[in-house]
Every structure is written in structure tokens, then in C-alpha cells.
Amino acid sequence: MEKGVKLFKTWSSPFGIRIVWALKVKGVQFEQIDEDLANKSPLLLLYNPVHKKIPVLVHDGKPVVESLVILEYIEETWKQNPLFPEDPLERAAARFWAKFGDDKVMPSIWEAFIKGREEEECAFAPAFENLKFLEEELKGKQFFGGERIGIVDIAFGWLANLVPVFEEIHAIKVIDEERFPSLYAWMQEFSRAPLIADCWPPHEKLVNKFRAIRDQSLLAAAPHA
Ligand SMILES: N[C@@H](CCC(=O)N[C@@H](CS)C(=O)NCC(=O)O)C(=O)O
User: Does residue 118 have a pLDDT over 90?
Assistant: First the structure.
């Protein structure tokens, strides 16, 4: 059996970077394999035949897929530096917020980013409704996890990482200091935390990548003459 920990990811994936952050917080050594999703490797297809997506964590030759599931696996396998709270009710709440992020917050922001027009805030109205819940949840706390980074911070890390990219491309403010003061402060704290900042993808490279994705999508949606 192949020993060790391997992570199949891409340099820019918000799902992949969650796993990098969690392994770093736990202090687990791992090998990173950056996939080209236009030409997926035979190993990725072997390890994730159902979804054929990254991230995939391979531990001692056995794959674990789906980023939120991988985070749970990491927590159960490496007990040091816990990411989840101890209390069962608080653990349930953490799982709820992480799922809310992927089910509601992410699609609403992505939809507005891809389809909304530049400098047009109203495209983000459904996203603002979702972000209000996060603002409430964070009120009075440094991190979702309290005084230290926990599972919900890691699950929402993409907000801190990608929203500034989307804001630059759209020339608007989505997580505005006045509208979302707690979320805004959290974004600064989270992105500055050393373990997190160490593996932050370059902002300009992300802007170029996501601008190209948006341009391509707008072109495909445009009515043909
Ligand atoms: N729900 C999945 C989503 C993973 C995902 O969408 N990965 C993208 C990259 S960001 C992917 O591998 N896409 C390849 C494809 O759709 O063919 C998770 O949380 O792991």
C-alpha cells in the first residue's frame, strides 16, 4: 500500500485550498498534486470516478472525496489542533454553516459574478441576503470558531480569497465594511493568519483566471447575430 498523504487539487480551487489549510493547521505533511482539469490524470479518474473532481485526499492509498467530507476525515484522523468544537450542538451548527456556504452562499455569489454587469450591485442582492446571516453569526467574534480558526472559517475561506477578486473584476464592493462590518473584519483577520496566508494563491493570477472565465461565459450567453 502506498503510504503517506497526497492531495489532488488545482492552484486556484476554493475547494482544494480548504484542504491545504486544514492539513497545515493540523501540521500534517502532505504531497500536493496540481491537476489540469482540461486533461484530468488517470489517477484522479481512478480515485474519484463518480464526480471526477478535485480535491481528492489520498491517505495510505485510499481516496476520500468531497471537500467537506475530507475536512471531517482530517478532523477524525489527526486529533491535534481540533477544527470542530467539542459540544455536539456546536458541532452540528458548524456543519450547518459549512453546508449553507456551499448550498447557498457560493452559488449566489457565483451567479452574480458570472451573469451580473460591472458596477451593478443589484445582481448581488440574493448574495447579500445570504451574507446577512453570516454577518449575524460572526457578530462579536474574531473567527466563526471563536478565538481561533475552525472548520467554518476554513469552509468559508474562499470568501476572503475570491470575493476581493470578484470585486475587482466587477468594480463594486460586495463585502463592504459598512454593510458587513463583522464579515469584513473577519476577511482581514483570516487572510492575515500566517498558516492561511502562506498558501494564498496570487491575487493578480486569480483576477486573470476569473476574468477569462466570466468573459467566456458572457460570450457564450450573448445572442448571436
Ligand atoms: N462539491 C465538491 C466540488 C468540487 C469541485 O467543484 N471541483 C472543481 C474544481 S473547483 C472540479 O474539479 N471540476 C472539474 C469538473 O467539473 O470536471 C467539493 O466540495 O469537493
Answer: no
